[in-house]
Amino acid sequence: IFLAALSHGTAENPLSPATLSFSPLKGSWVGRVTKAEDYDPSVALKDVDFSDANEAVRVGSERRAKLLAQIERDSAFLRDNNIIDYSLLLGIYDLGTGAGVAEGGSKAEDGHESLGDGNERSEHGRAGEAQAAVLSERTPADSVSVAASDVAVSVTATDTLVRGASASNEVPVHQCDMGGMLSSDQKSLYFLGIIDILTPYDSKKHLEHWFKGLLHDYRGVSCCPPTMYAERFNKFMSAAIM
Question: Which has the minimum average pLDDT: 68-77, 120-129, 147-156?
Answer without folding.
Answer: 147-156
